[in-house]
Amino acid sequence: MSDPLNRSVTRSTRWVFRNLANHYDTFEGRDRVMAMLGPVSLLTLLLSWLALVLGAYLLIYLGIATDSPVKAVELSGSSITTLGTTTTAHGAAALVTYTEAGLGLLIITLLITYLPSIYGAFSRRENGVGLLGVRAGTPPRAATMLIRFHRINEVGIRLSELWRTWEQWFIDVEETHSTFPILMFFRSPQAQQSWLTASGVVLDTAAFWVAAIEHPKDPDAQLALRAGFLTLRRLADISGLTYDPDPAPDEPISVSRAEFEEVLDEMAAAGMTIVADRDAAWKAWAGWRVNYDSVLLNLARLIEAPPTPWVSDRSPMRRPVPTSRSGRPRWPAGAKH
Q: How many C-alpha atoms does 305 have within 13 Å on its Cβ side?
């Protein structure tokens, strides 16, 4: 959204939809509203481009063809829609109408041409999100995925394949969502799934694998981590979000040490081998998380991501997820956390 027009239109449309969504107390209600943000933004962009062309040519016609604003509107509208219902006797103005008609057709043609590319990128993205749901649950969790892989054995081999797959997924998302930023606002078919929460869970899982679990050295996990946080940073740049590009490894993050220890205990209870030095594990894990912590949380607020532990339950710009008396987040009915 580096283009000023695209950025302005998308922000304005998002503001309208967010205000409509705020009338609902449940995430399901807000999700139904926000699901229309992507398609409506795309159509609004098309109408904005056409309106700018129509207005610019209207001014040209006022200068060379007519003194009547009404006549100029009719001539510009007739030309851009190629209806030809209004003509002019001026030779120069007639030539200008041809250029406007061609430009209008070009805009429509470009949109039609890009739609298959947008849908293809969306389909590839959602394929990865759906596969993660099988492995990490809904809402997805890093501990759930690691324990599930542990229980089916050959965890190291299967995870190495997973890291390579997600490294490619991150690269594809960076390329397609940089080219078509509106894709960030196209939501998953299932309300509790999201490309962003999937990204966060994969990064947290890889960080746990690298920092806290005993296993042979696995460079694929570190490459997936780097590909992931660079992708999120690139999308944050496009969206105008700020972050520290070179944070210190010991800077505070949104996940507490107690939450980290709780996950380690859960994995240890499932039979996974946790590293002996938990202090070093926490420092290493937090050192990875700090690279994408603020970016992940702010993007979650930007797209109204579904409630997911360690992602959209603590965004600094997001209104809090309802909590129970014990202080734990109260997730949607049927969601496992």
A: 30
